[in-house]
Amino acid sequence: MHAFDILGDPVRRRILELLADGEQTSGAVTDVIRAEFGISQPAVSQHLRVLRDSGFASVRAEGARRFYTVEPAPLREVDAWLDRFRRYWEQRLDALGTELARGKRARRPRAGEAPTRPAGHSPDPSTERT
């Protein structure tokens, strides 16, 4: 299966988000996924199997418990593929940062115009002079 087929499923993405916080038991993952998605334990197990078989997750047994963890290699492959497109959103983010920086500079009032206050600041009537 292609990486985006794996990541295209919201349940599998959520499982990976849970595993990104650290190793989790299959029971803990199942509890969260069942509560959030309303699917059965066998369905959650199938999603865990897909993640394991595709290399996105690994499992280790400790007695009767199974501990799942994220495997970084497939995610690095996805990141490498996305790298071709990163410039498109980085350019937009850079431009947005520039616009935000310009907006933070105090605008000087034009002739006959009252000075402006920064957004979110209202004058305190008790401190104003008349």
Fold and architecture overview:
- This protein has a domain at 3-71: Arc Repressor Mutant, subunit A.
- 57% of the residues lie in helices and 11% in strands.
- It is built from five helices and three strands; from the N terminus they run H-H-E-H-H-E-E-H.
- Helix 3 (26-37) crosses helix 4 (41-53).
- The longest helix is centred in the C-terminal third of the chain and has 33 residues, at 72-104.
- The mean pLDDT is 83.
Outline the secondary-structure elements.
Layout: H1 3-7, H2 10-20, E1 24-25, H3 26-37, H4 41-53, E2 57-62, E3 65-70, H5 72-104
Antiparallel strand pairs: 1-3, 2-3
Helix pairs in contact: 3-4
Structure summary:
The chain is mainly alpha-helical and 130 residues long. The chain has 5 helices and 3 strands.
Largest sheet: 3 strands, antiparallel
β-strand percent reads 5-15%
Q: State the name of the first-level CATH class of the domain at 3-71.
A: Mainly Alpha
Mean pLDDT: 83
CATH fold-level topology of the domain at 3-71: Arc Repressor Mutant, subunit A
What is the number of helices? 5
What class do helices, strands and sheet pairing give? mainly alpha
**Element order: H for helix, E for strand:** HHEHHEEH
For the terminal residues, how far apart are their CA atoms?
A: 73 Å
Helix content: 55-70%
Number of strands: 3
Strand order in the sheet with the most strands: 1-3-2
Unreliable residue runs: none
| CATH-level-4 superfamily name of the domain at 3-71 | Winged helix-like DNA-binding domain superfamily/Winged helix DNA-binding domain
Radius of gyration: 25 Å
